[in-house]
Amino acid sequence: MTTPRIDFDLKPSAQPVAATEREAMLADPGFGRHFTDHMVTVKWTEGRGWHDAQLQPYAPLQIDPANMTLHYSQTIFEGLKAYRQPDGSVATFRPDANARRFQRSARRLAMPELPVETFIEACDLLVKTDRDWVPGKDEHSLYLRPFMFATEVGLGVRPANEYLFMVIASPASGYFPRGVKPVSVWLSQEYVRAAPGGMGEAKTGGNYAASLVAQAEAADQGCDQVVWLDALERRYIEEMGGMNLYLVRNSGGTTTIVTPKLTGTLLPGITRDSLLTIAEDLGYGTEEARISTDEWQAGNADGSITEVFACGTAAVITPVGHVKSARAEWTVGDGRPGPVTTRLREALLSVQTGQSPDPHAWMHRL
Ligand code: PLP
Ligand code: COI
């Protein structure tokens, strides 16, 4: 079945940010600090479906105090990046995968599913309109944030009958202020991110709200990030703050990258998935497994686990250098970015920035 195309009403901004100001922002964008000139909005109403698709000037929204999202958090989001290519064109990385995950998140939150085509079309339209905001240097990119939330007004607890889908965009350099320097992690025993049957594999605001107190605990312990363990036994590694995790295992001359398997309580990352393929292309073994913190510590001590890194859209690949828990503390390898981490990072980024071929057709050219 083909999805009917939605026509977007185009309302260009009468007051775009001046070129000099934009260039100043692009020189050192950071993460999520500046926003482009436009945004996309598409409404959904019970009985009518998706309608009123618009590209319009970026502007604040007016929200009724009884907006259901403010009270019951029926909201989901995505994150993907547009990269400047060597010929000056722009391409996004695997937008179809984000679109499908957005549909899965919608199902979990009892929200309407946006057609994959409309998700991609909305992202394309925003990037094309605000293409001057796509940075052209280093690993910088334009981070796209599609999201959807309930717009119905009322305090009854039930799925809303009105929603707004939006896409905003923000130029991005590194997610972590210290760049690719290894991060230190705190293994959270007290707090869990998600339990079986919960919302762990959905990209919904509540999961991030739940993480903040544990992230604060990690900071109190002198660590950069929190690592989540499984809710039932508090033994198995799940993921890090806003990123998935990989361990690099060397045994008998074979290098294998191992990542926690998708149990339903962690986010199925698109970077995680892409690395399973890239690693195979580079001749590494791959494995999805349950990994306990004891195994990690023992493998680190006997030299079989040589590197650990985190991966995600915002922060790409970030080495993990030091681990701390209530019971133990250890340095991963020699605490510096390892060769496998560095090689995978370069391989992924060179596909994204168009420096190397794209054998899996992941780049979506605009
Ligand atoms: N885990 C969490 C909790 C995240 O927020 C993210 C970021 O999106 C990831 C993992 C990595 O997912 P992706 O590679 O699709 O960005
Ligand atoms: C991403 O990597 O896109 C994320 O969503 C992580 C974080 C900024 C929430």
UniProtKB/TrEMBL annotation:
* Keyword set includes tRNA processing: no
- Which GO biological process annotations does it have? isoleucine biosynthetic process; L-leucine biosynthetic process; L-valine biosynthetic process
EC numbers, comma separated: 2.6.1.42
**Gene Ontology MF terms:** L-isoleucine-2-oxoglutarate transaminase activity; L-leucine-2-oxoglutarate transaminase activity; L-valine-2-oxoglutarate transaminase activity
Which InterPro entries does this entry report, sorted A to Z?
Answer: Aminotrans_IV, Aminotrans_IV_CS, Aminotransferase-like, B_amino_transII, BCAT-like_C, BCAT-like_N, BCAT_family
Establish whether keyword Amino-acid biosynthesis is in the entry: yes
Pfam families in the cross-refs:
Aminotran_4 (PF01063)
Which NCBIfam families does the record match to this protein? Answer: ilvE_II (TIGR01123), PRK13357.1 (NF009897)
Q: What is this protein called?
A: Branched-chain-amino-acid aminotransferase
Q: Which organism is it from?
A: Streptomyces armeniacus
